[in-house]
Amino acid sequence: PIWTTTCPYMAMGVKGFKVKQGLPLEVTGAIAHGAAGSRMVKFYISDPTVKGDTNLNVEVLRRLLCGIVEKGGSIKEELYIQADNATDNKSKAMLAFLMLLVKQGVAKVVYFSMLICGHTHIDMDQIFSIPVQYMHRIASKCPLLATPQAMIDTWVAAFKEISPPEIVFIHWLFDIKAYFGVDDKESNIID
After folding, report:
1. How does pLDDT run across 97-107, given as a tens digit for each residue?
2. Using CA atoms, how far apart are residues 103 and 185, in angstroms rounded to an integer?
3. 58, 97 contact by CB (below 8 A)
């Protein structure tokens, strides 16, 4: 799931002052269950120079898998991936990347499933709701988050009962669609 916000973030409007242009930030959440012996939660923040499409989704998945290995975990023989039902996840490039994982021996089998439309209230959405609800509660105390770092610090402060997700910035990514020779106009195979 992706959560989009802008920075500066104004929790409350100020009479006569509106943020006309903010830095749009996309936050893509990912969870690896059973990774390195526990659950690994990450928020991947991409700036406006990174287009939110199949390339971003593949990059998030690639970095998540690399993070599992870096923390001493391993990918089991069977890799289960559950994604939202977005068009970018049903593309030829995504499926080609998953086949590449098998071909390169990362996993013997990859199971890739989509959530049913309208039924995406899964654990990732619940994790996204923690900083959103926190920001609504503190709106009167903290009306302006002027920098991405201030916003991230506020998000992390929201996690009181569970460990906060690891924050990862994505400033560049591989062009997996070009690598596999997939055109944007005909990249989706499932409607």
Report:
1. 999 999 998 89
2. 27
3. yes
